[in-house]
Amino acid sequence: MLSNIFVKCLTKNLTQLLKGGKVTMAHPKFEIPADPHGKVRYASAKRHAEAAKQAGKSSEEIHAIFKKVMSFNPATDLDKIPKDEAHKKYRSALLHAQKAKEAGKSTAEIHEIFGKVLKSTGSGHCKAEK
Fold it and tell me: Which partner from 23, 46, 57, 97 sits 20 to 30 angstroms from 36, CA to CA?
């Protein structure tokens, strides 16, 4: 089964070829989010897609991974983060940020806590998880 993206590109290129034009296989344009969280999510989606490409995943699998990361909502999707070693710090940072939000911390404080946990060595003791 051909992906919708591939079919659109194929149709466009056949039309160009029939008109005597040059065939190009341009990747569909993706609108990069303008908000700060969206930009970080986009960078993360690109890293995940590149890792999937290096792992030999198909084009459809890579696009699915990209879309999954881009649709991630940190406020509601903590349970969707893989519980593997690669995602351990991110998961912990997000958990701490959620606990800080529940405790009434400001947005600046929440971002600071998230950043500290993400950059930490993981050797501290957290009161929030007890």
Answer: 57
Q: Where are the alpha helices (DSSP H) in 55-128?
A: 59-70, 88-102, 107-119
Q: Render each residue's pLDDT in the chain as its tens digit; 130 residues.
A: 455 655 565 566 566 556 666 655 566 677 888 888 889 999 999 999 999 999 999 999 999 999 999 999 888 888 989 899 989 999 999 999 999 999 999 999 999 999 999 898 766 666 655 4
CB 88 within 8 A of CB 118: no
DSSP 103: T
* R_g (Cα) of the chain, nearest Å: 20
> What is the CB-side half-sphere exposure of residue 67 using CA atoms within 13 A?
6
Q: Report how far residue 117's alpha carbon sits from residue 96's, in angstroms, rounded to the nearest whole number.
A: 8
The tokens for 129 are: 């998880």
